Amino acid sequence: MSTLLARASVLQTYVLEFWRIKKPLIFALLTASFATGALAQPQLPSQPLSLETALHIAEQRSQAILAQEASALASQEMAVRAKELPDPILQLSLNNLPVNGSMAYSISEDFMTMRTLGISQTFTGENKRQARANVFERKVHTAQIAKELTISQLRRETALAWFDRFYQQQMVALLEEQQKEAKLQVNASEASYRSGQGRQSDIFLAKTTVAEIQDRILQAQASLKNATTTLTRWIGDTAYTSLVQPPDITQSPIDKLHLTHQINEHPDIAVMVAQESVARAEAEVARQEKRVDWTWSLMYSERSSAFSDMVSIGVNVPLQWNQENRQDRVVAAELAKIEQLRSEREEMIRQHIAETQRWLDTWNSNLIRLSDYQETLIPLASQRTQATLAQYSGGNGELSEVLDARKIEIVTRIERLRIEMETAAIWVALEYLASHNAAIEYDATTQQSHFLETK
């Protein structure tokens, strides 16, 4: 027993001494760990998040924009390369080496054996090389317009996510406000029952209404979480920041009088115009390919010292003996591709015009409906609720009438909010319909006019 006590005393002394020595280190490690954890937490902006700020953040975070920039850079590099002549070819060979007889595998005894050093160069015409470079230059322009299309799509999706979160917040706030009013009815019905003037069934009816609103609140909160998650896809953790009031959705840059011109500035159309430009450049390459490239070669052949060295000059010329079934077919295929792209562009223009006209009609109709809801329907629903509540408080009405009126008011307010959400979504589609880059808009429109003139 004494031995165990002695060992315990030694162990205790050792632990205390270890703690005394290592205590500063342990505290330092814990402090660093807490500091690291604090730094790892996302730092949300202190200011509410506006729509324009969200769009700016989305553009800064986008990898799709960087991808289009890389595509433009790749085509630009290829355009420089296409203007150059092909690389020369160095030839090293051992010719006419005997493989049998007394001179087998000897490189110096047979007079025909030669060690040859040669170089050859294919000369591609300048017009052909420029035509090839033009293809990549057009692809550079296509990538730049595709970048504008990516930005437009990015802004549209980010704006839709921003508005969705904003209105889902409004929905939750609306339902919570109505729930507070419904809870007052529960308190009133309980007080009325205790005073002997009310019925117990009124209490259950009021509580049922509160529970129903709570269920709708849970649904709205789930939708709010989903909307926030969607917004984080575009702007990261900043999506959890509170939002400012949205911009005015009653004004749009699109009007029916100039709809066709504005549709021509649509990034989708601009991309198709650029693709048509690439196809025309490729058709020109196909025409230039009908001009053959000549390949010149120079060879120096060394023989044994007893024989003289030799020089050879040669030229290789492809024989396009069947152009109508080969080269001409390629040209015809490229021209057909141009016609295909032109027809697809015309169909897309018609589609966008019809779609945008539908958006404008629905948007204008919704603005009128929102005005009716704000000026007529919601005030009437609210007045009905107040009237039935006054009758019930005066002992001349039923609680069920009050609750029915309140439900109608809730439905009316929710429908008004739903119409506003739909209107905001249409406004986003109209607001980000055309490209925001004026230089690319002008270039795309100019190309389109040129193509229509040459058609």
From TrEMBL:
Coiled coil: 172-230, 331-358
GO cellular component terms given for this protein: cell outer membrane; efflux pump complex
Subcellular location: Cell outer membrane
Entry keywords, A to Z: Cell outer membrane, Coiled coil, Membrane, Transmembrane, Transmembrane beta strand, Transport
Transmembrane segments: none
Record keyword Iron-sulfur present: no
GO molecular function, one term: porin activity
Protein name, entry field: Uncharacterized protein
InterPro entries reported for this sequence: OMP_efflux, TolC-like
A Pfam family annotated for this UniProt entry: OEP
PANTHER family: OUTER MEMBRANE PROTEIN TOLC
